[in-house]
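Issue 218. Parser rejects a valid record. Input:
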Amino acid sequence: MILLVVFSEKAYISVKQTFRKEFQEEHMPFLTTITVVGLVVLAGLVWLFMRTRQQDLIADIIAKRKASSKLVARAEYVEGMEKIQVALSLTDTAIYYQNPDIDASCDLKDIEEIEYDDELVTGRAVLHGCRALRLRSHGHTFEFILQPAECQRWMAALPAHHADEPTARTA
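Output the parser choked on:
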């Protein structure tokens, strides 16, 4: 009789373990799905936060630059296929483009050509109404995409010219 009880307990334990495995197998795909969806949503929220935070930091840079610059605007710096949001500012001596990761400038005396165009140097069209500000200096081309209202102000403050044309600064 003791063998029978032990046998019964083992049988009972065996049935209980089988039930747990079936329960876990049925609910594991659901748990995995929820986890994957949660991770994707979390990644999206982190990306959105970082993008919004970068916009705020660029706005802070623009506010700081307004006091010392003739003209300040939000623009996109085009580097190959990548477009990088920057604060673009013009002073009496240089053009600055800045964001939390970039702090660069180009002296006006070193700029050989200034162009405003509706397509990039790669041939890609700029969004409708926007213009590309193209600066050439010592064999390098720097391109910035400006919004239409900003572009008119930049064209008035920094007129287009080519290397073979005299400008007001060099004449």
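Fixed in the parser; the record now loads. The first helix runs from residue 2 to 66.
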